[in-house]
Design brief:
Blueprint lengths: L19 H24 L4 H28 L1 E7 L6 E7 L13 H27 L3 H35 L5 E7 L2 E7 L3
Antiparallel strand pairs: 1-2, 2-3, 3-4
Keywords: Golgi apparatus, Membrane, Transmembrane, Transmembrane helix
InterPro entries: TVP23-like
Main location: Golgi
Length: 198
C-alpha cells in the first residue's frame, strides 16, 4: 500500500485550515457578490434594482465579515476607524495578534494566510475588470454598482495591507515584551502603542 503524502503547509486546500468554517464563510462571501452580479441577470431576472440590492447586501456582509471576523481569525489582523469628537479628525487603528515570539503568540496557519491574501487582492482586481467591461459596453448604470464594490473591497484591501505592515513593524519594535500590538496612523506618522490584554 502506497503512503499518502500530506500536502505541504500553505497548500490551497481548505481542509488544511486552522479555521475551516471561517475560511469557507469568508470565501463564500467574497465569491457571492461577484457571482450574483455576473449570473443573476443572465439566468433569472433582468431587474437591475433587485440585482443591485442583493449585490450591495452581499458586499456589505463581506465587508463586515472580513473586517471583523475573518481578518482576526485567519491572519490575526483587525482595523477600525476612530473619529476624534472634538476635532473631527479621523484615524485608522490597526491591531494585530501577538507575534509567535511574544507571550501568548502563535504562528498563523500558512493555508489560512495564503487564502486570505489571495482572496483579498483578487476580488478588487476582478471588480476593476468588470468596471472596464461596463465602460466598454456602455452600461454606465452597472458602473455605479461596480464603483461601490470597488470602494468597499479596496478599503478593506488597503486597510489590511497597512495593518500587516504595521504589525510587522510593531512586532519588531515590541521585541516580545507585550501580548498584543496596536499601531495608529495619526496624521501620516506612525505612532505605536503596546498594551496588555487579559
Amino acid at each position: 500500500m502506497a503512503d499518502i503524502e500530506a500536502p505541504p503547509p500553505g497548500t490551497l486546500n481548505w481542509r488544511l485550515s486552522a479555521h475551516p468554517i471561517t475560511l469557507v464563510t469568508f470565501l463564500s462571501f467574497r465569491a457571492s457578490s461577484l457571482l450574483v452580479y455576473l449570473f443573476l441577470g443572465l439566468l433569472f431576472t433582468k431587474n437591475f434594482v433587485l440585482i443591485f440590492i442583493i449585490t450591495i447586501l452581499l458586499l456589505a456582509a463581506d465587508f463586515y465579515y472580513l473586517k471583523n471576523i475573518a481578518g482576526r481569525r485567519l491572519v490575526g489582523l483587525r482595523w477600525w476607524n476612530e473619529v476624534n469628537p472634538t476635532t473631527g479628525d479621523s484615524h485608522w487603528v490597526f491591531e494585530s495578534a501577538p507575534q509567535p515570539n511574544e507571550p501568548g503568540g502563535k504562528l498563523v496557519n500558512a493555508t489560512d494566510k495564503r487564502f486570505f491574501w489571495l482572496a483579498l487582492y483578487c476580488q478588487p482586481a476582478l471588480w476593476v475588470a468588470l468596471a472596464v467591461v461596463a465602460i466598454v459596453s456602455f452600461h454606465f448604470i452597472w458602473l455605479t454598482l461596480v464603483v461601490i464594490a470597488l470602494v468597499l473591497t479596496i478599503t478593506n484591501t488597503l486597510a489590511f495591507s497597512r495593518c500587516d505592515k504595521f504589525s510587522q513593524a510593531s512586532g519588531l519594535l515590541g521585541n516580545g515584551l507585550y501580548s498584543a500590538s496596536l499601531a495608529r496612523n495619526v496624521g501620516g506618522a506612525l505612532v505605536s502603542r503596546m498594551f496588555n490584554r487579559s
